[in-house]
Design a protein that fits this description.
The complex is a heterodimer of chains A (275) and B (320). Chain A is an all-alpha fold and 275 residues long. Chain A is 76% helix and 0% strand. Chain A has helices at residues 3-41, 61-92, 97-111, 114-129, 134-158, 162-170, 175-186, 188-203, 207-210, 230-239, 243-274. In chain A, helix 1 packs across helix 11 (243-274), helix 2 packs antiparallel against helix 8 and helix 6 runs antiparallel to helix 7 (175-186). The longest helix of chain A has 39 residues, at 3-41. Chain A is globular and about 70 Å long. The mean pLDDT of chain A is 93. Chain B has helices at 5-45, 47-53, 56-59, 73-104, 107-122, 125-151, 171-195, 199-207, 212-223, 225-241, 244-250, 267-274, 281-316, and strands at 63-64, 69-70. In chain B, 47% of the residues are buried. The model of chain B is unreliable at 1-9 (pLDDT under 50). Classes of the chains: A mainly alpha (275), B mainly alpha (320).
Chain lengths: 275, 320
């Protein structure tokens, strides 16, 4: 083999290895920094005290609470709608034109900028009602969640073998019952995986909350009022000039990253076990 | 007439079926309504700005809330420059990663490394932003940008691109962070389609004495071309709309500068930074008009991505 070809091959292989290393270095660097800075700022106070005014110490209790409420509410809104739409794509409308269009649009929505979703909810809810609210934040998160659940439900149902549907129909069971009793059961692990991955995604979403839930320095459980939440607190505190706020931002970043990564890895592990 | 019990049960089943179909179809419509509603509400919210400034909204670089003049040239420029530079970094790296994961790495290593690369996409963008602001920007300011400024800043033609103070915050840092963020999206699609290339094609190339690099260049890449282009557009769509990371690292400056070391602005960052402070209708409308432009452009880019990805799906008889 001529030397030139051999050299080109070796160079390409070296480049591929270097590229992979390049990708991994950033992952390690980001996680390392977050663990180091966030771990140092971690303390029990984090979970017992409210977000402090500038220059004082405090915790993130109200932010954790607000985030949990909004994420759960978004799940409660987005999951049933997403599963229903995914069911239409895979089952009842499988070969219809509507399903083809929705499937296409859904994939686009999956990657669409989430800040636009935030502005949309601002125009739809915040402006007419006159104030920022936790409810608006939950709605925005639900809209980010929706396409994820639609896509994974659709895919999970398509993996169910047709013989199962046919067996159900042969017994004279109406279609909706076959879907509800047989297909959902068979596709359960796929659907749950999708919902959990969606949960991991919306837990860290910041842009859709900036103009909907905004933030709240104090304890509030009122969904019609601005609601504190972890991502926006991290944003505001990290951008501030105060050291205490920086520390809290790192602590919040650490908890958030740990949550998201554990969820991601756990879901992969479970999905592999289910197969 | 008495209806036999069995037929009645069957009828109620048909009625419930219709209802079930209606409910699921309604949910499917909702997906369309979300997209259409978002686009329409951005167009409606931005109408005051479009009416007031017309085409000047896109071509003017004045962004002055005090005198109520809004031109979006700087954020548009910043969005395009950072996204294209991010692609310039992410595309070769992603192809390299895909090659490594499909051809080079030992089998037991492919799974874990693949998951690690996918995790890059799972890290919330606000974490990228914070890391970029507190760790990466200072690193660039201390180690990379002085070198660029000293060695490339003096060159005749491209010197201007690397001129300026090494402050870390700016177009170059933001582009690199964006590039890292879109690597997993391009790399995983590339890996999956590389794996889907029929082995006969590769074996034929091997039989002809091809090296692995030649197989990639002459067999794998031509065969997967449309999907790779789709993946690149997918990455571009992500980069254009990325908000938080860019907001932290880009510097929020409304100056048009050709130096990559200077702070700038992007559409998404401008909205994130200024929307809650916008105190006049025209100001708010201008920001929503920016969001409309961003939305339309990303939708077009993502549509191209989807169409290109569907083409390889058809070749293989399945859709992604």
């Amino acid at each position: 083999m001529p030397l030139r070809r051999k050299l080109a091959d070796i160079l390409a292989l070296l480049f591929a290895g270097a590229a992979t290393l390049f990708g991994l270095v950033w992952l390690v660097w980001i996680l390392w920094t977050t663990a180091l800075q966030g771990g140092a700022a971690l303390s029990p106070v984090l979970f017992t005290q409210m977000t402090p005014p500038p220059g004082e110490s405090g915790g993130l209790l109200n932010a954790f609470y607000g985030s949990a409420v909004m994420v759960l509410l978004a799940l409660a809104i987005g999951t049933p709608i997403g599963i229903a739409a995914g069911t239409y794509l895979a089952e009842h409308g499988r070969y219809s034109r509507l399903a083809a269009v929705v499937s296409f649009i859904n994939d686009i929505l999956l990657s669409a900028p989430s800040i636009v979703i935030g502005l949309f909810i601002y125009e739809l809810v915040v402006r007419p009602s006159g104030h920022f609210s936790g409810l608006a934040g939950a709605l925005a998160l639900a809209m980010v969640l929706l396409p994820i659940v639609v896509r994974t439900t659709d895919e999970a149902l398509r993996l169910v073998p047709n013989t199962m549907r046919e067996a159900g129909f042969a017994l004279g069971i109406p279609r909706w019952r076959v879907t509800a009793r047989v297909l959902y059961k068979a596709a359960l692990s796929g659907i749950v995986t999708g919902v959990l991955l969606g949960l991991a995604r919306i837990a860290g979403e910041t842009a859709p909350l900036l103009f909907t839930a905004l933030n709240n320095q104090f304890w509030s459980a009122d969904l019609s009022q601005p609601l504190a939440n972890v991502p926006v607190v991290i944003f505001q505190y990290a951008m501030s000039p105060y050291d205490q706020w920086h520390e809290l931002a790192w602590a919040g970043a650490f908890v958030l990253t740990a949550f998201v990564l554990c969820l991601n890895l756990g879901v992969r592990f479970l999905a592999r076990g289910a197969k | 007439m008495n209806v036999p019990a069995k037929v009645a049960a069957h009828d109620s089943g048909a009625g419930a079926d219709r209802l079930f179909r209606l409910v699921t179809a309604g949910a499917a419509w909702l997906v369309l309504i979300v997209l259409g509603g978002a686009a329409a509400s951005m167009a409606w919210g931005g109408r005051v700005a479009f009416q007031t400034f017309g085409w000047r909204f896109i071509t003017s670089r004045d962004w002055d809330p005090v005198s109520a003049k809004f031109g979006a040239l700087v954020p548009i420029y910043g969005t395009l420059v950072t996204s294209l530079l991010a692609l310039l970094i992410a595309v070769p790296v992603s192809i390299g990663i895909a090659l490594f994961l499909t051809e080079i790495a030992p089998r037991w290593l492919r799974g874990p490394i693949g998951i690690a690369i996918e995790l890059l996409a799972a890290i919330p963008s606000i974490i990228y932003g914070m890391w970029g602001l507190f760790v990466f920007a200072p690193f660039m300011a201390a180690h990379v940008e002085p070198w660029l400024s000293d060695h490339l800043g003096q060159l005749p033609v491209i010197g201007g691109v690397f001129a300026g103070p090494p402050i870390g915050i700016g177009l170059l840092s933001a582009s690199i962070v964006l590039g890292i963020m879109i690597i997993p999206f391009i790399a995983t699609v590339a890996r999956d389609v590389f794996n889907a290339v029929p082995p006969q094609l590769k074996e034929a190339a091997v039989a002809l004495g091809s090296t692995r690099w030649e197989i990639l260049r002459r067999v794998t890449l031509p065969y997967t071309r449309s999907a790779i282009i789709g993946a690149i557009f997918l990455g571009l769509g992500r980069a254009l709309g990325e908000t938080m990371a860019v907001t932290f690292v880009l510097g929020n400056a409304h100056d048009l500068s050709f130096s990559l070391l200077m702070p700038s602005n992007s559409i998404a960052a401008a909205i994130a930074n200024e929307f809650t402070e916008a105190d006049t209708d025209l100001y708010r409308s201008s920001l929503i008009a920016l969001a409309f432009l961003l939305f339309v452009v990303t939708l077009i880019v993502l549509t191209i991505a989807k169409l290109m990805l569907m083409r390889i799906g058809k070749v293989q008889g399945r859709t992604h």
